[in-house]
Amino acid sequence: MILSPPGAGLPNMERLFIKNILVPSVRxxxxxxxxLVFLKREIKIIKKLVKNIDKDKLQQKVLIDRTFAIEDDTRxxxxxxxxxxxxxxxxxxxxxxDTLSKEQEFKAAIKIENVKPKKNKEDQIEExxxxxxxxxxxIKKHSKKQSKMTKxxxxxxxxxxxxxxxxxxxxxxxxxxxxxxxxxxxx
Length: 187
What we know:
Blueprint: H1 12-29, H2 32-50, H3 55-58, E1 62-63, E2 76-77, H4 79-101, H5 124-141, E3 151-152, E4 158-159, H6 161-186
Helix pairs in contact: 2-5, 2-6, 4-5, 4-6
């Protein structure tokens, strides 16, 4: 089976639903603290899901069915590749939040294909845990003022620093479901 290339995007109706309904709804419901609580919950779930999986299985690529908000090429990942993607994207989002919070322009282009995993390495769970420990500290100490400066998500709309912090939760939630789908295929 030939999958669409990285950066090809989501089906149009799905992208429009996220852009026009999901994102505006979440902006109204969430606060900085609520987003952080939900993100911490997702990280706990992911760690619990992967803790007893054999290291070889963590690196085994499997093809999963199409999942909401998952790009086509991402359907054939290993668990470690998903964890690596969450770390790469997480560092990128942290940089965006930090820059926008200083009311500075984030000049670098944000491209989906730039946050794809490259290594599928054995000890990815450790790097994943380390990143989220750093992220939680960053957000805990971070000023909760919403920036006027924004940076557009490649598929959706302009996000300010607060929107990007909510995105961290939504993005992790989506990929936790992907990990669950991979585990199902591994069995």
